[in-house]
Fold each of these.
Amino acid sequence: MTVNGPTIAFLILASLILSAAVYIVTTRNIMHAVFVHLLALSSVSGIYILLYAQFIAAMQVLIYAGAVTTMVLFALMLVKPKAGMEIALDNQQKGMAFATAGVFLSVLLVVLVPKVWATSQEKLTPLTVAKFGKILFTKYVLPFEMISVLLLVALIGVLVLASKEEE
Amino acid sequence: MSEYLSAYLNVAMFAVVAFCFVAILLGVSAVVRPKKENPVKLEPYECGMVPFGGAWSQFNVRFYVFALLFLIFDVEIAFLYPWATVFRELGITSLIEMLVFIFILLLGLVYAWKKGVLKWV
């Protein structure tokens, strides 16, 4: 690995994401977890920028960091708060979880570390929104229309669930 | 470094400066200010009234529906942006494609409307 600007940026972003993730699963205050989650999501958009995907980075900030975080906050607000905001983190499956995660980690290490990744000499060019739009509205127009069906399903699903809740 | 990445270096520097700005302000004031706490001082400020209940209360499920409606149309608007950049080039075809997209989502809005979730009772 050569040490250059993008590599340093990647390492900083990756350590931000990982430490935020560790904080999220270890903190006892669920509200803090949501706000640290926001940091993780924003750092992921930085990774997208390093991958020359500007539009995806903007979508990440707009939809994940903006709207999804709001949704998670709303979901928490719906829950009747029990005494204080503390949550129990432990259960009896802790040992099992460690074992499973350990096995998964060792599989990843065995498979991924010796692998020599193919590299391309092709020069990366930033994906502009115009280029993205052109592909989206010509070659990938059917998946694009499917997005609206997916969103419709989500919308109707939440309306049905929410009205059941109110009864 | 490419021109593209050095442009985003500005964004990174801006983020670092913003973070340091807040951290230094809060840090310095935490070091300098006197700390004489008493129960009244530690209460949250609620327009001078004595606060009652916790800060976290249960919300009506209707807020959630509004938030989800917002999220869905947020995604829709985000797709309008790449469409706007290529509209001149692709012309009427892309207009029809976008109208179909919006129409399908509007069905959801009409359903929500008919179900009365937009009305606050």
Amino acid sequence: MRLLRLISWPYLRKHAVRSLLTVVGIVLGVAVFVAMHTANQAVFFAFERTVDRIAGAAQLQITAGEAGFSEDVLERVQAIPGVQVAVPVIEAPAATRLAGQGNILILGVDMTGDRSLRDYDLETGDEAIVDDPLVFLAQPDSIIVTKEFAARNSLAVGGRLTLSTMVGDKAFVVRGIMRSGGLTSAFGGNLAVMDIYAAQQVFGRGRRFDRIDVKVRENIAVDAGRAAIRNELGVGFDVEPPASRGQQLESTLAVYAISMNVSSVFALFIGMFIIYNSFSIAVTQRRSEIGILRALGAPRRQIRNLFLIESAASGLLGSLIGIAVGILMARVMVGTISNMLEGIYGVAERAEEVSADPRLLGTALAIGVMTSMIAAWLPARNASRVDPVHALQKGKYQVLTAGENRARRLAAAVLMAAALVFLWIGRSIWFYAGYLLIIVAALLLVPTASLWFAQGIRPLLKWLRPVEGALAADSLIQSPRRTSGAIAALMLSLGQVIGLGGVGRESYNSIVDWLDTALNPDLFVAGSQNLSDRTFRFPHSLTHDIAATPGVADVQPVRSLRVNVGGSPVMLIAIDVVSFERRGRRATVAEDPRGMYALTKAGEGVIVSDNFARLQGRQLGDFIEIPSPGGVLRLPIVGVMTDWSDQQGSVVLERDVYERYWQDDTANVFRVYVANGADPVAVRESLLARLSPGQPRLLVLTNAEVRGWILQLTDQWLQLTYSQVFIAVLVAILGIVNTLTVSIIDRKRELGVLRAVGGFRRQIRQTVWMEAVAIGLVGLALGVLFGAANLYFLLQITGRDLSGMYLPYRFPVGIALMLLPTILCAAFFSALWPAESAVRASLVEALEYE
Amino acid sequence: MNRYGLPSHVMSAFRRPVAIAAAMFLAGVAAPNAQNDARQIVAEAQRRSDARSQRYEGLLQVVDSRGKVADKRWTFSRLGSHGQSKAVLRFLAPAEVKGVALLIVNHPDRASDQWMWTPALQRERRIALQDRSTRFFGTDFSFEDLEERDVSQYDYRLLGEEPIDGAPCWRIESVPSQKKISQYTKSEVWIRKDNYAFAQVESYLKTEVVRRLKYAEFVQVQGIWTGRRMEMSDLRRKSRTMLTLEKLEYNVPLKEEDFALQALRNPL
């Protein structure tokens, strides 16, 4: 403790700014980790709570995928002896026409029996009306809203609320307002209750329910009740506790979490190297102190522990700040994740409480401190090995000995060889281990590679400015310890930019290719501009109406819904396969010799997407089982094609087979092809004029509009790359400022002599600037090389674990070129303040520096 | 020595136990009779109110715990006798509920089947058995209370006699038999001794009285004594519902087809 007080504290106080900058690296890594996990947990917790609240006292929920099931299932369930209460439910998101409110979840229930399971706890309302379900049932425009929603939108009992429904915009009458708490907390209050049979009509359910909520008799165990229901209904129905819906969300978020974990690990690595850099510099700067301490009898262990304690303190400070920043970032990220949930559930889950789990914070704290101590381990060990005599010598310590260099190169070679072996083994854990080894090997090679590059650009720098350029290059060549930390951090950061940029660019290109081949209808008839919205369905009869419109050559009704296949929610696409073959130009990956389309049309097989095959480990000829209300559909895979419809994979089934098993002939979307010579815009107008009166909800979108919408979604991925560029610039600035600051201190005498012999201030500045630019150039060069390798790994991760889609390897030249001016500018900017401090330093002091 | 040849003091000693034993014997013999009497009383009350059909217009007034009154009107038609009948209830007012109808098909050996028709939606919905304990459309009656009871569905015990509104009545305990599914643990029924009309019914959940149905304004219509006013009180909610029967008729000609699901769809 005395040493900390006498040695460490004065040093830290003297270099407060630099110490703080060092800590920023840990702050960044911990903040990303905390933000990502906190946001995920907050949204997941909010969703689970919502599921619980909507479920009420229900112990089991019966569903049959997204298609729902006919009403007669309800009586079968109610007749089961162990069932005490079984009530039908429809859940449908509906767009409000209120500013800033987005969608609201409509819960359609049968009020005569639903109060056994859910407490509506009405606050206000005409008791004679709301408490009397007769009027509520008799008036299908009746709705009950939450107190929160009513307050936000100045709604009172008797007021009107317009919602977008299958029958167009419809005004509902608020007949009751629910008290706060319980059910009303679902989706931040964006929930409303209406009669289930009225909901069937306005949301196009026909005579179907979405699910049945069940409570078993008191003397019956829930598992026994579940078994009895399964026995009665057979396959094709899921009978699960409400909590299982949270597990489905967890699987969806897991994919998102993998990508965020990779970013977090990179951020921590970068932080680690900034700390390594700073402590290496600190050790070399304090060699005299260390030498004196050793000469006075301080054991090596004490010296080592001194630096480790300093690093632990830095890590602790960085972690605490990182946690606070992370929680703030989580509040922003919650919005992003909530929007993603809206795509799944239809309504954005507003996670009102963003509070981090103490265990998570403890983990983040431990990670920050451990990262800092790991980063400082080598410098601390080096400090403990300082020879008291050599410690008093200047100038030699920034040099890496030849032996040290050889050891690093050897270690790197061994790690690379091991990595190649792991990659050859191929299984998931070995793959990631190999990836990690490659990163470590690259880091070990940074000093050597920096030296080579510095030697390589020396002629260029010297050509630009003979004196200043040579001094700048020599500073890098002679002091690799000082610069390799910053360069390593830059390399990692830029490698991540190139990797993510490459993946993003190839994803974009692949989607554009897919759009050209697969998304080729001239027009789309849908219920929403968001084609992935499956809430609205149209009757099959609309096919004939569309086909009869002048200018229409072909119509393909499509019914898509999510079904559970092999434990994953994949997209089932029911379409007329003959028309699909005639019009589509999807790339075929594998095909049954007898013809995949013919077999699928005959109901003797299915066609799957390539990412489905990869994610599920299936191939041509394998059988898959698809649960349906009409029984389990077991069919072989007769074709595999490239398809970007869904991240979890897609399965194409002949429409007739679907109608038979699901007893559902509705369609989500109609793909319309116009006749040769017909104007798609004119045909669209005709369709709208003919169909809109009977289908107010109907939209007709052109191919260009749909492409634009899809590409807009894809562009969001690329925005992630830009945020990584921002991090890279920040890292560059931090690392270079740190390095230059120490460089100027180290070269105080050298720069002093330069001024004493007549060097201008301008020349001092340019020396520092050019050193900064040189660091930036070397970091960029290594970052590009590392990025090329990193791109390969990220493409593999995307294919293996994220989307199942293997993208071609194409180096993102455009992004790399964009990085050149960006990093050079950042480097130059970083050098401004150190250059000024070098210029303003006292000449007398500089010459006295010893 | 008395005439039985036993000393007098022995006779005295035995006199009380013998009297007690005799009383117990008589009580034992009387108990089955009391049960039989109770069933017979209920059966007689049912017989006297039996009719091939019934029809009336009803004024329903619901008074909530704050004293607020809401009115509804309906027509009620019944075809068939106790426990094996069909009934249609169709709302006439207020305007929000006009046309809403309920079809009740009573069975002697099981719970009734009930359907509700909503004209605005043009569709019917079945009222599930589990929902029978739910309040009937905001009144203090439950769906089960609308079912007809048959004497064979319950077990009875005569509890004694007690006047209701000055009229002497038998007080009878009625417990659902095993084949009868009911939300109530038991009921107590008061039947007037003068005309065998029901004067009051109290329904229990375990040991708590939860509902009380009281009859008033007794009139004889076509030889059948009927309480024209009924007041159902929900003792937990502290609210009550009054039903007044108007234009009451018995044994009117009604068509079987008017008591089918399709008939609900016919407008008034």
Amino acid sequence: MNKSTLYKGFLEPIIMRLLQENGRMYGYQITQMVKEITKGELHITEGALYPLLHRLEEQGIVETELENIGNRVRKYYTLTKAGKKQTSVAMQELTMFMQSLQLILNPKLA
Amino acid sequence: MIPQEQVDEIIAFCEAKGVTYYDVQVELVDHIADCIDDLQKSNSALSFSDALHLAGNQFGNEEFADIVKSKKRLIEKRMSRLIEKEFLSFFTIPRIMITLLLLGISLAVPYLINISLWMILFLMILGLIIGRIHIWPYEKEIRAIKEASRIPILSLTVQSRYERFLDVMQILMGLPNIINLFLEHPDIPKNPAPFTTQKLVTLQILFTTLLMLGLLYISTLFVRRRVYNKIFDQYTKAFIAD
């Protein structure tokens, strides 16, 4: 099965979790950190990352600030207050989902 | 840190891929520049143009278009949501009462005093002119910000569904309808009291519709002004001349 299909549904909580852990982050940094943490297992494509970040911004989950980095501008994303709350809920839901998945994959644990 | 000429090349690359809007381009340029930096760190023999080719290829041709498309959709949604909120904020109980009172008065006036359709038309046009003068500074400010941007900004160009609706209504509700009201009765100018209930109802519907459309237009102006000022503060670089 295609790994990226498996990860697709988890992209949003993954990004929210990274922002919760690291404060403010920019697009490229997120892709690199995911790659580093998953030891290259998960590669977030730019075409999936930016539309998702833009959607989170519109939903008020993240806010952005622009900063001049020498000769170019960098856009940083930070979780909003509502975003922080939503991340905690998303993490709880994800944990429960993983436990359920574990029970399906390994019924002996039940 | 890559030099300015190379940043300019990345911008040109993004533009060639269809990302011409500053508010979308800014983070993609930074992304590609970071990627080039990393590629050249891991392979010092790699030329800038090869690195740009590799970094750009990571996106894929359709991904650039997808990013612009999704951003456009989100801006459109946000604008519509903000306009809806602004429009509905008018409907507080005191404001509704005053509006109903004014509508009631305008309904009763033709029965109370001898007033012709021409006079009503004159009063409506006068009302429109007064309204127009009142909102003129807002329109001017919005136009000034739009004209000041030296690079296209997506948030300044996307229209909400309400703005598109107003454009269509402007055509449909234009002058022909008002003229039509008189064309059916060529003897009206000679008759000082041409009112029938049917005409009065037509006028009331027209008046209420114009009032609602005017309110919607004012809501779009208020929202645009707020959003444009925010964009001006956020993307100052796009407004500063070289």
